Amino acid sequence: MALNTIKFLADKLNISASSIRYYEKHGLLDIKRENNRYRIYDDSDEQQLKLILIMKYAGFTLKEINELLSLNDNSIPEQDCIERTNNLLLNKKAEILLKIENYKKVVELIDLMQPLATAETSEENSVELDNLINTIFNNKIKEK
User: Fold this and answer.
1) Domain range list for the chain
2) Each residue of 101-143: pLDDT tens digit?
3) What pTM was computed for the model?
């Protein structure tokens, strides 16, 4: 089990040391300290941090990440843990799938707009463009 400094881990994962301290402050990392009070990180801390970064990238809030990570706590009955984990993951998956659909529509919008930059706007293109803008906007509002 390798023990690393915050600087080593930050450099390895290409994030700032302050980000690691921020995650620790918010209860997402339980860091061990040496006698001199310096933080030390082992392989499990690195894996936990990688998971946090992936979940942040996927759009999880710090509260959601903390909830998921705390569900591993043995004080929660196993069935409750499974149920809460599944609910949280299914809700996040639905949010991500909605975003994917919105991104697809944004790509359609971009494709539709490109010819408009070099050609005359037709009534048909204009209506299609307006419909796509409204669809994207309405879906975006539904996310919130």
Assistant:
1) 1-59, 93-144
2) 888 988 887 887 776 665 566 677 677 777 777 777 776 645 4
3) 0.70
Residues 54-62: contacts with CB under 8 Å, at least 24 apart? 58/92, 58/96, 59/92, 59/95, 59/96, 59/99, 60/92, 62/26, 62/28
Q: Where are the beta strands (DSSP E) in 15-134?
A: 32-33, 39-40
Residue type, 86: N
CATH of domain 1-59: 1.10.1660.10
Q: How far apart are CA 115 and CA 50, in angstroms?
A: 42
By the 10 Å C-beta count (0-12 exposed, 13-18 middle, 19+ buried), 107 is classed as exposed
> Which residue, 59, 55, 57, is CA-closest to 29?
55
Q: How far apart are CA 10 and CA 134, in angstroms?
A: 42
